[in-house]
Design brief:
mainly alpha; 260 residues; 74% helix; Four Helix Bundle (Hemerythrin (Met), subunit A)
Amino acid sequence: MESAAQEEIKPRSKGIYLLPNLLTTGCLFSGFYGIVAAIDKHFAPAGMAVFVAMIFDTLDGRIARLTKTESAFGKEYDSLADMVAFGVAPAIIAYQWGVVRIAEFGHYWGRFGWLACFFYAVAAALRLARFNARAAGADKRYFEGLPSPSAAAIVAAFIWFASAWPEPGLVGLIGAFLVTASAGALMVSGFSYPSFKKFDLDRRIKFVYMLLVPLFFVLIAIEPSTMLLSMFATYALSAPVLWIGRRIRRLMRGAPAGVG
């Protein structure tokens, strides 16, 4: 009887679940590789690495839920890996691609690029901290602010796309840092973005919609950087555009009769 009681109060052995944390490590490694590739001036592979990190980041949470191996350790590790892959890596990729070049146009232009990249990294940290603090009571259907992987995708895809330019010029360099700063600002904004977490994969759809899936992948295969940039930029701009549209409709409803 005593031995049975001892077995009941025996503490659980300390350890971590291998598979989901291995996938999280893949996300972390991809972010680290993106940083190293950018330092070595290989900007296209650096941009690709961020998208590989997104794949690992998507898989680790889903695998943990499917295998019932979620843990507090895994959540903390995932958040730290996200900060490297979607916070630090895109900022350094943008910095390495543009700050050295833009500094040639003047000292203050270099400061502008440096601050834009740092602002992005800070915004990513704030976005992740806010997500962790409000995760328990948040509406799972929506994200508050642009998700950090989507913001990282915009910056990485833009640099990947722009890496083919032989000489971007001042306008192209300013554009890169405005994209970086804007992605950071959207992360800490109050805009609501659909999370697609409640999307029902078992739901029946029209057969014609299935034809769009191979077309989508073909387009990405033909011009990956352009398609990925267009896709994530559309997602990022959707929330502010819808917000402006709602504001305009409210103003029009409140306008006196006969106006307009």
